[in-house]
């Protein structure tokens, strides 16, 4: 009887030990808060099972018009690391950090990126383009910065973070090489695209594509009637048929624009945010592959 009891008890003890280990592991994970969904994906790639990741601006949401809520201040206080893009993308970040009283580590993922400037809406000055992740070579810098920050908080995992960032960098290089091959098949004269707002500056410079947009760098600034009229004239003159709107922007403006020039709008692109779980862009790598495929198909129509 005692032997049967011991045999019965043994698997229960093992299960209990495993359960305690899982609780311990969960407690040991570094809580990280990323400013928006694309950064959240990069943190998950680098941190793997040593981190728990949450984001302030989720999939299909627009960081340009994001307004922090009281619950966001609570979330930031629960994190040991806050990851931001920088380059003026999160205009609300410093105010949120200050108002919440957050004292943890902050890493600017774009630190070290060669920033690009673009003309302002009035055209009398320039402003920094924050969309540096649209160039995969910049994302390699992002993951190195994230790995360094995690290593500072968790020295025991430093080698893991370094290896994860190196593996991912190789994936970025493969993605980049494939994108260049696809785009090289499009004649230079046809590499012209219309999008909702100026989010493709780094992408265009890296791959040799001319992007035009009715809105500027930020989606919270409506274009003037004059700017739209000038864009329509350019579309007609250059015979541009590759027109796309973005997942986190209203399609109303581009839909009206395509109607005015008689061109069908292509599938939505994923620019400042990942797609939801049932979409085609649930990670940065998927986002880039999807966008390249759609852009190439659109440019072939020009």
UniProtKB/TrEMBL annotation:
Entry-linked Pfam families: ZnuA
Gene3D superfamilies associated with the record: Nitrogenase molybdenum iron protein domain
GO terms assigned for molecular function: metal ion binding
Biological process per Gene Ontology, one example term: metal ion transport
Keyword RNA-binding tagged: no
Domain of life: Bacteria
Sorted UniProt keywords: Metal-binding, Plasmid, Signal, Transport
Subcellular location: Cell envelope
Primary location class: other
Cellular component, GO annotation: cell envelope
Coiled coil: none
SUPFAM superfamilies in the record: Helical backbone' metal receptor
Segment forming the signal sequence: 1-26
Family: Belongs to the bacterial solute-binding protein 9 family.
Name of the protein: Zn-binding component of ABC-type Zn uptake system, ZnuA
Species of origin: Polaromonas sp. E5S
